């Protein structure tokens, strides 16, 4: 009755307006009611605007599995002169239609997924078929790009048919042989999916791809909620393009992330206008039809676009040559082909259109290769909400929401949430609070420490609640390669028993493969905890300690060298040859030099002892030498006295080790770390030779050098009396050395890393919590927390390490590197003095040569020979080099001169003595002229 009414309306309109009728056929299944309406009213909308022709829809119905009836209906439509056949939507019946249409060259337009046959497409077989459904390979690539963008390292695929698995072939090729394997699970007709979901939950998988018929999606998600598989750390991607048509009202408050794809923009004017036509058209037929644009099926939208695309092709080609329908027969005897069919198909392949499903572009095989997909996400407020668009040109996900919108959405979801925060006991991060008498503590009030105050500060910024829980085994979290399982805090997160894990948990590569971390809230490194060396007995010769042995040897050498130089220069310098009788004013014939080797040694010794000497050199060169030595002595004496008091009062220590290299080179001192901790992992996986040797030594030592906790390691160091060192993280080491003054840190940091807050992979709260940590850091609150729990609480600051270090530095013995500059200055001064002494000697030679009237060479020989004769301490004023008298006369003259000198000396002594006796009487000293 309905078809008759449509035909009558079309006939009346044609008669009234003079339009030519162009019949088009369509084959639907009984459950394609919405698609039939979309097709029907799309043609009606076309006919309202066309002036020269009118499309006359001729609709038939078949069963999806009835191939015989499908063939009969196609031939029936061909005999009625249809110019194209739309549908049906099943691959079985569609294949029969496509074959017949190819034979009689009638365009065949389909709107369902059609996989590429084995061996590829046959252009001849596909010559008359146009498919508006997205091409299978391109759609599979869109799903792959989405998974890559989401950074899913592992996932499980749940599918219900082999066709569905074929749609995911690009996804199955994402992972390489070394990547985490993908799990693929098929469901059957059993409506109970709980056992399968529990198996997936037991495996720890949190990423699931649902490739199932839309009718099974809701029930599967309901059962997932029942088995706790719809929590906030599970994520689902639904591959069906019709998932948005389902009623997710009962599931939109679940905490899982549910994402799907959609081919059309449900906010566009085109789809709203099309839905209006459907509702109004059915209302004219006295039928009630209601559908919102957000719930339009993909197939219905594609039928709408297919009808408009075909009408456009007819309009464009009819303008050049009138399109005339022709009644055709499927029988072999009367087989004819429609002459316009191939032209229409070829035109549609090159024509670019835009419908309610977006841009429509085909390849040479009539497959739709260019389209856009909306990525939509289920939200609590708006149901499915568009968050991004996939662009097939470059395979890129373009997000339509800003990061600020995402952050605000997450923060809003935190307002009414209570986090379960896992931790472990360990000072100062988390400790049990001391109970007062009669006090009952429960919940978070049982604990105190840095971790508690840190999460409390974050909760105040983001507005969530939290509940602290202790991990049962008390471990941080390490991976067992034999059992392929994690333990400690990491396992607690993987089992979804906690939302966050916070303590001194180090961010490592291995842990990041299992859980996510926030930005570090504290940076640190590995160092060595060791007992301070035992004080040694007092040394009788501790007074020598301010200067090293090398410095003492250099000083002794300098002392002898300066003394010898002073002695040599004084013999060469004329100014140091003095009148032996200063009271005689007349000219004397002999002068003497008091600077023998003993006096030179005495002068330098007196200088270095700071007492000086009653005899001083007079020549410029010797004075320079003496001055440089006094300067040297002053510097050395001040350095010695500055360190002497500290060395005599301090308790000398004998440190056995100073670095990790020292530990690795010896075998007497054992060393270890916490079993299962990041410190142990550092040595186990290090490629540095020193650390490899240390790991080998630790692993092979018996009894075991590993401990269960830092406290156990601390106690073992204290009891070891210098025979055990503990490798631990610098933050914990600093806390211990602030309270145990007999322990100290040896060497610097062996690496650099950080503590972070751990959470399940792909946690939606990571960015928000990292932001809160950064805010606390910028405000200085993290520094305040560390100062409070390291320096102030529970005995912090008891040991003043800085003062101890300063005292040790001030008492350190001075080596040649410290005082070598003084020796350089002394050597330079002595060299200058030596040059000056040579010049003085040569000047005196010249003077003697002039006065004695001899050649300079003769004067030089005589003066040099005299200076080198170390046994002579007196020197004649004139060398008498020019005299020609005999040696006897010279000797007599000298003898007489000596007797006269002795007589004068005796008379001088007698008169001087009488003068001193009678000084009170006469008031003056007798002076013999």
TrEMBL record:
GO molecular function: glutamate-gated receptor activity
One Pfam family, short name: Lig_chan-Glu_bd
Entry annotated with the keyword Iron: no
Membrane-crossing residue ranges in chain numbering: 551-570, 628-648, 822-843
Domain Ionotropic glutamate receptor L-glutamate and glycine-binding: from-to ranges: 428-495
Presence of keyword Disulfide bond: yes
Sequence ranges of Low complexity compositional bias: 882-892
Protein localization: Postsynaptic cell membrane
Biased composition (Basic and acidic residues): 893-905
Site keyed Interaction with the cone snail toxin Con-ikot-ikot: positions: 684, 775
One term under GO cellular component: ionotropic glutamate receptor complex
Signal peptide segment: 1-18
InterPro entries in UniProt: ANF_lig-bd_rcpt, Glu/Gly-bd, Iono_Glu_rcpt_met, Ionotropic_Glu_rcpt, Iontro_rcpt_C, Peripla_BP_I
CDD domains associated with the record: PBP1_iGluR_Kainate
Record site feature (Crucial to convey clamshell closure to channel opening), residues: 657
Disulfide bridge map: 741-799
Keyword annotations from UniProtKB, A to Z: Cell membrane, Disulfide bond, Glycoprotein, Ion channel, Ion transport, Ligand-gated ion channel, Membrane, Postsynaptic cell membrane, Receptor, Signal, Synapse, Transmembrane, Transmembrane helix, Transport
Membrane topology: Multi-pass membrane protein
Residues of the Ionotropic glutamate receptor C-terminal domain: 418-792
Ranges where the record places region Disordered: 881-906
Family annotation (PANTHER family): IONOTROPIC GLUTAMATE RECEPTOR (PTHR18966)
Protein name listed in UniProt: Glutamate receptor 1
Organism: Aedes aegypti (Yellowfever mosquito)
Gene behind this protein: 5574991
């Amino acid at each position: 009755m309905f078809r008759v009414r449509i035909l009558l309306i079309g006939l009346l309109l044609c008669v009234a307006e003079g339009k030519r009728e162009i019949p088009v056929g369509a084959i639907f299944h009984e459950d394609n009611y919405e698609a039939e309406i979309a097709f029907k009213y799309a043609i009606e909308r076309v006919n309202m605007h066309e002036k020269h022709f009118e499309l006359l829809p001729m609709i038939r119905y078949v069963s999806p599995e009835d191939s015989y009836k499908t063939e009969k209906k196609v031939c029936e439509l061909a005999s009625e002169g249809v110019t194209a056949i739309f549908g049906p939507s099943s691959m079985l019946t569609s294949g029969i239609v496509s074959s017949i249409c190819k034979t009689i060259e009638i365009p065949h337009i389909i709107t369902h997924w059609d996989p590429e046959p084995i061996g590829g497409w046959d252009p001849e077989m596909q010559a008359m078929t146009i498919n508006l459904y997205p091409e299978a390979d391109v759609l599979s690539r869109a799903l792959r790009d989405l998974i890559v963008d989401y950074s899913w390292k592992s996932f499980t695929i749940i599918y219900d048919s082999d066709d569905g698995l074929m749609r995911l072939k690009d996804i199955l090729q994402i992972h390489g042989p070394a990547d985490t394997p993908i799990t693929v699970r098929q469901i059957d007709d059993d409506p109970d999916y709980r056992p399968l979901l529990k198996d997936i939950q037991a495996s720890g998988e949190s990423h699931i791809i649902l490739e199932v018929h839309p009718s099974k999606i809701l029930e599967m998600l309901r059962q997932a909620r029942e088995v706790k598989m719809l929590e906030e750390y599970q994520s689902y991607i639904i591959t069906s393009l019709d998932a948005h048509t389902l009623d997710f009202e009962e599931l939109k408050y679940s905490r899982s992330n549910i994402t799907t794809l959609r081919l059309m923009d449900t906010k566009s004017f085109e789809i709203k206008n099309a839905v209006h036509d459907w509702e109004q058209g059915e209302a004219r037929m006295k039928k009630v039809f209601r559908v919102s644009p957000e719930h339009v099926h993909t197939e219905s939208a594609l039928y709408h676009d297919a009808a408009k695309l075909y009408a456009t092709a007819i309009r464009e080609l009819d303008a050049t040559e009138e399109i005339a329908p022709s009644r055709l027969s499927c029988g072999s005897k009367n087989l004819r082909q429609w002459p316009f069919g191939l032209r229409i198909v070829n035109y549609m392949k090159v024509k670019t259109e835009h419908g309610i499903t977006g841009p429509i572009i085909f390849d040479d095989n009539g497959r739709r290769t260019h389209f856009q997909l909306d990525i939509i996400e289920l939200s609590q407020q708006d149901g499915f909400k568009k968050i991004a668009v996939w662009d097939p040109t470059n395979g890129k996900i373009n997000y339509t929401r800003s990061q600020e919108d995402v952050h605000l959405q997450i923060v809003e979801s935190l307002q009414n949430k209570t986090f379960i925060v896992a931790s472990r006991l360990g000072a100062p991060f988390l400790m049990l609070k001391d109970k007062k008498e009669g006090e009952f503590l429960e919940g978070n009030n049982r604990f105190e420490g840095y971790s508690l105050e840190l999460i409390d500060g974050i909760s105040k910024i983001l507005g969530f609640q939290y509940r602290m829980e202790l991990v049962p085994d008390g471990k941080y979290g390490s991976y067992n390669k034999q059992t392929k399982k994690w333990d400690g805090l990491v396992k607690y997160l993987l089992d979804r028993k906690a939302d966050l894990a916070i303590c001194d948990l180090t961010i490592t590569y291995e842990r990041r493969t299992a859980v996510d971390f926030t930005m570090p809230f504290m940076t640190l490194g590995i160092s060595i905890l060791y007992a301070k060396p035992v004080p040694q007995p007092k040394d009788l010769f501790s007074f020598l300690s301010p200067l090293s042995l090398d410095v003492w040897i250099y000083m002794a050498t300098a002392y002898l060298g300066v003394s010898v130089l002073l002695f040599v220069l004084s013999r060469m310098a004329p100014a140091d040859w003095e009148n032996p009788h200063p009271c005689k004013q007349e000219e004397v014939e002999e002068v003497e030099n008091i600077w023998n080797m003993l006096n030179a040694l005495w002068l330098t010794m007196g200088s270095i002892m700071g007492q000086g000497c009653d005899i001083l050199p007079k020549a410029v060169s010797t004075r320079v030498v003496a001055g440089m030595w006094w300067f040297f002595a002053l510097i050395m004496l001040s350095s010695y006295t500055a360190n002497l008091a500290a060395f005599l009062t301090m308790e000398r220590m004998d440190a056995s080790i100073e670095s990790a290299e020292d530990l690795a080179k010896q075998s007497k001192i054992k060393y270890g770390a916490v079993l299962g901790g990041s410190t142990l992992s550092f040595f186990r996986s290090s490629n540095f030779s020193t650390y490899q040797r240390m790991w080998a030594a630790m692993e092979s030592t018996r009894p075991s050098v590993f401990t269960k906790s830092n406290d156990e390691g601390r106690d073992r160091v204290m009891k070891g009396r210098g025979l055990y060192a503990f490798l631990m993280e610098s933050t914990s080491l600093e806390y211990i050395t602030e309270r145990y003054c007999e322990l100290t840190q040896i060497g610097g940091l062996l690496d650099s890393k950080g503590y972070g807050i751990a959470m399940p992979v792909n946690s939606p709260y990571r960015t928000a919590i990292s932001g809160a940590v950064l805010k606390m850091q910028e405000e200085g609150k993290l520094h305040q927390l560390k100062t409070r729990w390291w320096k102030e609480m529970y005995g912090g600051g008891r040991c003043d390490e800085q003062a101890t270090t300063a005292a040790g530095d001030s008492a350190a013995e001075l080596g040649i590197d410290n005082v070598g500059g003084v020796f350089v200055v002394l050597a330079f001064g002595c060299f200058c003095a030596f040059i000056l002494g040579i010049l003085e000697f040569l000047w005196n030679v010249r003077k003697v040569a002039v006065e004695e009237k001899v050649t300079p060479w003769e004067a030089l020989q005589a003066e040099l020979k005299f200076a080198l004769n170390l046994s002579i301490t007196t020197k004649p004023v004139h060398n008498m080099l020019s005299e020609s008298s005999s040696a006897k006369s010279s000797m007599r003259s000298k003898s007489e001169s000596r007797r006269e000198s002795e007589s004068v000396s005796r008379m001088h002594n007698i008169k001087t003595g009488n003068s001193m006796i009678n000084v009170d009487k006469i008031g003056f000293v007798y002076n013999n002229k």
